[in-house]
Amino acid sequence: MLESLLFPFTEEHEMIRQTARDFAQNEIAPIASEFDESGEFPMETIRKMGELGFMGIEVPEEYGGAGMDTLAYVLALEEICKVDAAHGTIMSVNNSLFCYGILRYGTEEQKQRFVKPVASGKAIGAYALTEPTSGSDASNMRTRAVRRGDRYFLNGRKSWVTSGPVADYVVVFAMTDPEKKHHGITAFLVDAKAPGLIRGKKEPKLGIRASATSELLFENCEVPVENRLGEEGEGFKIAMSVLDAGRIGIAAQALGIAEAAYEASLKYATEREAFGQKIAAFQGISFKLADMKTRIEASRLLTYHAALAKERSKSTGERFTLEASMAKLFSSETAMFVTHAAVQIHGGMGYSRELPIERYFRDAKITEIYEGTSEIQRLVIARLESGLH
Ligand code: CAA
Questions:
Q1: CA of 388 to the centre of ligand 1 (A)
Q2: Beta-carbon neighbour count of residue 332 at 10 Å?
Q3: Helix (H), strand (E) at residue 228
Q4: What does pTM read for this prediction?
Q5: Which atom of ligand 1 is nearest to the CA of 237?
Q6: Domains and CATH numbers, the chain
Q7: Which residue from 13, 124, 248, 293 puts its CA 20 to 30 A from 303's CA?
Q8: CA 264–ligand 1 middle distance (angstroms)
Q9: Is 154 within 8 Å of 196 (Cβ atoms)?
C-alpha cells in the first residue's frame, strides 16, 4: 500500500492498529447501534479502552499513557471510528483537547493530578471554549474569571461541551481581562465537583449520539490559582494550539467513518444485482466507488502527514496548524461525500436502521462542524498561505 511506502510505520504502529481493530470489532461493534439509539454514554467500553492505553496514546507512561507517537494515535482512532465514531469522539477529546494541552502547558503537579487519571481512562476529560454566542468567533467570549486571593471565581456559560454530562475534569477558557480581548483570556483546569459548576441539559444530537454533549454553567465557580493552565492572558494561544492537535484527531475520525461506509458499499455493490447484473458493473455506481476510494486515500495521506508534522513539532516547536486544518477540511468533506454516496448505493437499505450506513451518514456531519467548521479551516489555510489577515 502507498501509505507504507510514504510513512515510517513500525511494528509498534501495526500492533496498535491491530489491537484497536480487534477491540472495535469485538467490544464496540456489538453495542454501537444500541448506544446510538439510546444515547447512553458507553462508560464500560471507554474504561476498557483506557486500560488498553487508548485514552492517552501520546501521553508518557509516567503520566498514565501509552507513550506512543501521533501516528499511533491517528491509526488507533481511525480504527475505533471505523466501527463507532461516538467512541472515537470521547477518545479524541481525552487525548487531544484535554491531555495534550496539559502536557504542553501544565505544571508537573497538574500533569500528575489531571492527566494521569484521564490518560488511563479512569476519568473523563472535557474542553469548554464555545459559548451560546461565540462558536467560530471563539475569542469573543463572555465567561469571566476574577481573582480574589488564591482563587479565581468563574461566571458564565459554555456550550457544546463534548463529554460535559460525565466529565470529571474540564479545561475552561475565561476572560480575566476583557479590555485586552484575546490577550485577556486565561485557561483553567476545573474539577467538575467544584462548587458553582452546574451541568446543563444534554443536547439531543443527529449523530455521535452515544458521546454526551451539554452546556456547563459557572456560578461563582471556585478554582484555586494552582489550577490555572499557563499564565494569565495565554488562554487563547493555548486554545488554538490545542485545537491544532484536536483537528488531526477529527481528520482521523472522518477517515475511519468514510472507510467503513466505502467498504460496506463496495461489498454491497458487488453482491446486489439489478437488471441482470451486479450493480457495481453499472457506470453510475462504479464511478461513485472510484471517487469514494480516491478521496479516502487522499484524506489518509493528508491525515498521516499532519500526524508526522505534529510529531516533528515536539522537537522543533514549529506549528502544524496548516497541516492539521488541511487534513480536517479534506477528510471531513470526504466523510460527508462518501457516506452520502453509501446511502445512495445501498438504496432503501441505506436508509434503514437495520444497517449502520445511515449512522455513518449522521455521524459524518459533525466532522464538518466541531473543532472548527469547514469555513474556519478554509479561513485558517487561506490566511496562513497568503499572510494576509
Ligand atoms: N496556535 C497558536 N497561536 C495561534 C493559533 C494557533 N493555531 N491560531 C491563532 N493563534 C494566535 C495568533 O498568533 C494571534 O496571536 P497574537 O495576537 O499574539 O499575534 C492570536 O492567536 C489571535 O489570532 P487571530 O487574529 O487569527 O484570531 P481570530 O480571532 O481571528 O480567530 C480563528 C481565529 C481561526 C477564527 C479562531 O477563532 C478559530 O479557530 N475559531 C474556531 C474555534 C473552534 O474551532 N471551536 C471549536 C471548539 S471545540 C468543540 O468543537 C467542542 C468539543 O468539545 C469538541
A1: 15
A2: 31
A3: strand 228-229
A4: 0.98
A5: 3
A6: 2-123 (1.10.540.10), 126-233 (2.40.110.10), 236-386 (1.20.140.10)
A7: 124
A8: 37
A9: yes
What separation in Å is there between the alpha carbon of 290 and the centre of ligand 1? Answer: 36
Query: Is the backbone of residue 216 left (phi > 0), alpha (psi -120 to 50) or beta?
Result: beta
Q: Whose CA is nearest to atom 46 of ligand 1?
A: 371
Q: Which atom of ligand 1 is nearest to the CA of 138?
A: 37
CA distances from residue 152 to 41, 155, 378 in whole angstroms, order as listed:
31, 10, 36
**Which residue is closest in CA terms to ligand 1's atom 29?**
139
Q: What is the pLDDT along the chain (389 residues), one digit of tens a residue?
A: 667 678 889 999 999 999 999 999 999 999 999 999 999 999 999 999 999 999 999 999 999 999 999 999 999 999 999 999 999 999 999 999 999 999 999 999 999 999 999 999 999 999 999 999 999 999 999 999 999 999 999 999 999 999 999 999 999 999 999 999 999 999 999 999 999 999 999 999 999 999 999 999 999 999 999 999 999 999 999 999 999 999 999 999 999 999 999 999 999 999 999 999 999 999 999 999 999 999 999 999 999 999 999 999 999 999 999 999 999 999 999 999 999 999 999 999 999 999 999 999 999 999 999 999 999 999 999 999 999 87
Q: Does residue 144 have its Cβ closer than 6 Å to ligand 1?
A: no
Which residues form the catalytic set? 371
Residue with cell 471563539: 138
